[in-house]
Inverse folding.
C-alpha cells in the first residue's frame, strides 16, 4: 500500500495549518528530541507503526479469507482463487479510491488547501509542482 494513517493525519494537519504536520501522532515534543533519539524512534518503532493499515488488511485477510480458501487451495481452482482475487480488488478500490479522493478529488477540500502548494501539478499529477501563470 502507498499510504498509512501517518499520511492521512499529516495531510489533515497540513490542511488545518499546523506547521509540524509530519510529527508522530502521539509525541508533540518530537521536534525537541535529539537527532539520535529521533533516528532511533523512526527506525525502530515508527517505521513499523506507520504500516498498521497494511498489517490490518493482511490480518483481516488471514482471519476471514484464509479459513475459507485453505481447505480448497491444495489444487488450483477458480472458486478459491476468485475469492482471494475479489478481496484484493475490493481492498484496492476502497483504499485507493479514498486516497485519490483525499489528494486529487474535486469534491475534497484537501487538494485545494495547503496540500495544493505542496503537491498537485496542474499538467502532470505525478511530477513536482511548477508555477504556471494563466
Amino acid at each position: 500500500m502507498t499510504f498509512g494513517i501517518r499520511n492521512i493525519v499529516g495531510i489533515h494537519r497540513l490542511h488545518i495549518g499546523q506547521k509540524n504536520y509530519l510529527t508522530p501522532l502521539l509525541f508533540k515534543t518530537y521536534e525537541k528530541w535529539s537527532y539520535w533519539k529521533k533516528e532511533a524512534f523512526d527506525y525502530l518503532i515508527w517505521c513499523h507503526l506507520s504500516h498498521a493499515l497494511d498489517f490490518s488488511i493482511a490480518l483481516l485477510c488471514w482471519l476471514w479469507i484464509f479459513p475459507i480458501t485453505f481447505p480448497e487451495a491444495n489444487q488450483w481452482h477458480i472458486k478459491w482463487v476468485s475469492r482471494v482475487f475479489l478481496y484484493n480488488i475490493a481492498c484496492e478500490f476502497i483504499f485507493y479510491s479514498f486516497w485519490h479522493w483525499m489528494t486529487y478529488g474535486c469534491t475534497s477540500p484537501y487538494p485545494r488547501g495547503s496540500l495544493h502548494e505542496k503537491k498537485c501539478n496542474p499538467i502532470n499529477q505525478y511530477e513536482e509542482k511548477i508555477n504556471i501563470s494563466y
About this structure: The mean pLDDT is 79. The helical segments are 5-16, 35-49, 52-69, 78-104, 114-118.
